[in-house]
Amino acid sequence: MKYFGFRISKVQTDNGSEFMGEFDKYLKEIGIEHYYSYPRTPKTNGNVERVIRTIEEELWFIEGIDYTIDHLNSLLEKYIEKYNFVRPHCSLGYRTPAEVAYGNSIKNSEVVL
Fold first, then answer.
1. pLDDT one-digit tens code per residue, 42-81
2. Using alpha carbons only, how large is the chain's radius of gyration in Å?
3. 3-state DSSP call for residue 36?
4. pTM of the entire structure?
């Protein structure tokens, strides 16, 4: 919620075991509804699947080095900032997701990477 700047009331995930235990418990504790996509239907979550593919292609496969979890999380955090606030997307008319979500008032110079 700190990252997005607005309250999150619902989260949808696939049926992976990583979302069933502690993650689901945490969402319940903080009052966020948790929805699951139907099994074997990756197209229902196509936007998320595409982001994951892009991250794999642009970050993990390029890096290609073994890192610690903390270092990978740090790289991912920086990449997500770039992906949402700096990197223009063809599918969004060469605008960033932040520009689409918040309007053109967000400038690249306002983002600290």
1. 677 788 788 888 888 887 776 556 678 888 888 888 988 8
2. 16
3. strand
4. 0.61
| 8 Å CB contact between 74 and 49 | no
pLDDT 10s digits, 2-25 = 776 778 999 988 888 888 899 999
For 8-37, letters b (16+ CB in 10 Å) and e give: eeeeebbeeeebeeeebeebeeeeeebeee
Distance separating alpha carbons of residues 98 and 79, to the nearest angstrom: 14
Pull the structure tokens for residue 40: 């074997």
How many Cβ atoms sit within 10 Å of the Cβ of residue 84? 20
Q: Which one-letter amino acid corresponds to residue 110?
A: E
* Beta-bridge partner residues of 95: 89
Sequence-ordered strand ranges (E) for 1-113: 10-13, 33-36
What is the model's pLDDT at position 32? 95
Handedness of CA 87, 89, 95, 99 (dihedral sign): negative
Q: What angle do CA 12, 13, 16 make, to 5 degrees?
A: 160
